[in-house]
Amino acid sequence: MFDILLQSTGWSLFIGRFHPLLVHLPIGFLLIAALLETGRRTNKVNVNALTITFILLCSAIGASLACIAGYLLSLGGGYDAVLLDRHKWQGIGVAVFAWIAWFVTHDKFQKKIPFGSKIYLGTFGMAVVLTMTAGHDGGSLTHGEGFLSQYTPEPFRTLAGMPPVKVPLEEIKPIENIEQALVYQDIVQPILEMRCVQCHNASKSKGDLRLDDMAFILKGGENGPAFVAGNSAESDLVKRCLLDENDDQHMPPKGKPQLSNEQVALLSWWIEQGAPVGKKVSELKKSDAVKPALASLTAGGATNQEKAPVSPVLSLKVDQADDKKIDVLRKAGLLVNPLSQDLNLLEVSAVNAKGFDDLQVPLLTNLSGQIVLLKLGGTKITDASLKEIAKLKYLTKLYLDRTAISDAGLASLKSMQYLEYLNLIDTKVTDNGLKSIAAMKTMRSVYVWKSNVTDSTVNQLSKSNPRLVISNGISESAVAQFLQIAKSTDQDSTKAR
User: Fold this and answer.
1) Alpha helix ranges (H) inside 243-382
2) Which of 155, 259, 301, 329 has the lowest tally of Cβ within 10 angstroms?
3) What's the CA gap between 336 and 332, in Å, rounded?
């Protein structure tokens, strides 16, 4: 077991991630001990020396635990080696000096140690100082070098000889002449700087990957190249952005500012074109799908795009769901959340209930007047379940990916009045099933990757029904088109909020 913890495993990383929590214990204990000791020696505070000794013991234990967790966390890699080594020894120093300070003040050892008072003050002082320096370097490891001093105001910056403040890029400035813009320098690099460089830079390179310079992007990280020129479908830079935000592999991590639909489409387009560095937009082939994304970079370009229709469901007034019926779904392992605070509409997900099956699906119909989004991907449902799901009269988005459903089951959905989004990735659906779904007047987007649907049918249906976007794989064109549809459906939810 001990050997396992000394390697980068699930257990070591699990324990290591408690480091940010544990590290605050010695910081708090040492600072309060220092204040009490100062107050005691200046007769400002009436405190027993044993109290301070006990606080020192707590700080020593806390510092030791923080060191262990910090070491295990470091096994995951992605940190600047020099900065990490310095931070490690500073943390060990805090623990060692805190133990010595406690040792020389303990009743059993105090009288046996010569010059104990001087040793106490010296080690106590060193523990406090190292706490400060270790905290500074810890902040730099987590957020990038210079994090604590990044926004030092004037005149202190000038007095300290620091360069002017470098404000992080929050948005790409409008490009006057998009055709003459350098694709990497004016479009790709600013996107990466806004959304990716914070975790992939010189001082903090998660996954041993840096995205702050093209040379490092080409080098890649511990999982291989960041992209495959000419093939966005095999490029992590795009694939990870398209993962569900709750997926551990999704980038940027959940809680961080995410790439917009247009930004992902632009990155995909750049990769499909061979990821050139010195070429202008005018020198690259532009599909109809990526043109709106490019237009969004120009002044007022995005405002000229056609607005997607808002789902009529969001304008309906529905009754509030019965709490007891919601509890029944939650006991079955489903996540049930309100679509917004202002509406009584619900979204239901089986992400934590992969054993959910046909026998449990009827539980959903108890909330047929409230469920508008349903995620059943990866569950054990079959075609039989779709007859029950069709009873959810206000359902607009349905995820059936990685299930056993087929064309026969899809026939049950044709009567649904509001269904506009359907995820059929990795199912047995064929061309016939897709054609039946495409005939639905409300349907706006369908995912059919890894199914039995053919490209010829997708192309045929796309031409005959321009309002319907069908994606049969990841390509520059497909990503741009699908993300535009995804954006429109997300906007519906946002407007509801």
Assistant:
1) 261-272, 291-295, 323-331
2) 155
3) 11
CB 259 within 8 A of CB 195: yes
Q: How far apart are CA 452 and CA 277, in angstroms?
A: 38
| Cβ-Cβ contacts under 8 Å for 164 (sequence gap 6 or more) | 157
Identify whether 155 is preceded by a cis peptide bond (ω within 30 of 0).
yes
- State pLDDT tens for residues 288-341: 667 778 888 876 554 334 444 567 887 788 889 999 999 999 999 999 998 876
Whole-angstrom distance, CA of residue 322 vs CA of residue 370: 10
* Distance of alpha carbon 56 from alpha carbon 104, whole angstroms: 11
Dihedral of the CA atoms 90, 91, 97, 101 (nearest 10)?
140
**Residue showing tokens 């706006």:** 444
pTM above 0.85, yes or no: no
Contact 238, 220 (CB under 8 A): no
Amino acid making up residue 448: V
Quick one: fold of 312-496?
3.80.10
d(CA 406, CA 206): 41
Sequence ranges of the domains in the chain: 2-158, 178-304, 312-496
> Rounded to the nearest 5 degrees, what angle is found at the Cα of 28, between the Cα atoms of 26 and 32?
115
Any bridge partners for residue 200, and if so which?
Answer: 205
Q: Which amino acid is at 148?
A: L
Q: Which two tokens stand for residue 24?
A: 């605050």
The H-assigned helical ranges of 439-475 are 455-464
What angle (nearest 5°) sits at the alpha carbon of residue 401, between those of residues 395 and 402? 145
pLDDT of 249 > 50? The answer is yes
